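input
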Amino acid sequence: MEEKYDINQPIYQVGQATMSFTQMLNYFIDPSYQRGNLSRISDMHVKTGRPVSFRIDDDLTPLPEGTGVSDEVIRYMLGVLLSERHLEFVLDEENPNDLDTAFEWKDQGVNFRLNVFHDRDGLAFVMRVLASNIPSIQEVGLPSEKIWQDITSLKRGLVLVTGVTGSGKSTTISSLINHVNLHRKTRIITLEDPVEFLFKSESSMVSQRQIGQDVPTFAEGLRSALRENPDVIFVGEIRDTETASLALSAAETGHLVFSTLHTRDAKGALSRIVDMFPSEQTKSLCLQLSFSLSFVLSQKLVPRADGNGRILVMEVLKNLPALGNLIRTGNWQQVYSTMETQAKEGMMTMEQHLLHLYQHGVITKESAITYTNEASLLERLG
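output
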């Protein structure tokens, strides 16, 4: 007889109580962990032998009095989260598999990104909550109004948002794209892995495509999108040379392209793209990038001094003529100093933004030092 998995079945021992999976998910919507429309809890981590833990304001915090999760309990949790086909896929004893998928908590209308994997202790999974509503640009908190106005008014060009995993890149891009969706009559196509924020077509027409479900790869999806008369294209991540080449070409030929990279600063995004290609192509790549690139936003989420959540800290590179010359020649060493002196044109370094927030009491000095890219530069600015 097929086993039935009940999301409301008590399964996990916490102190003297036994929690259901629903009770665990309730932490994501608990008002005491909300800041505006965004949850201060980003992820739930479950691993064999360890207490269920939540990432709250970037700190991984176990449930008080939570016991180590047994393999049996994790299997039950996965029965709640996964389809029968996916459950068989990850529990295959001869060939255990990892899985990237999504989960919809239908009772609350909340969506999660889910990754299931195996480690030396057994089963483990991570769930990341996806915002139910796309936050406005004002809620996201970009450093200035001019930045987002300049970006959302672009007709063509490449806009890169960089940062480590969990730094809010998808949230920033989705808020920018949705502003275009609300206020311009355009055709928007997104390529995502997986789809995170759900767009509703407003002034624009939006099509969202998921890698592995609607299209095999980012490169294939981008190649297809270019035949679908788009104005705006969102490529979830630039992972390979083919995707990078197509994204640059699309931006150069009259499309507004958004994408992400995993780099710690704006300067690193430039060299990262060029370094994807063979060295003999460096000169032509630098030339193409100088024409195609519009903005690089490099961001981090830094704890607030009052302990109430985190705030967005951002580095802004805008492809002005002075920057274009540096990009064409591959002169990355002078990029930072040029950004530093072009604040009136909308550029900002990470250190300048951290210093500004510290001076206004929004973050602590310790946080400013911890999250800076170069502590010596922060001291010089201070």
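quick obs: The mean pLDDT is 92.
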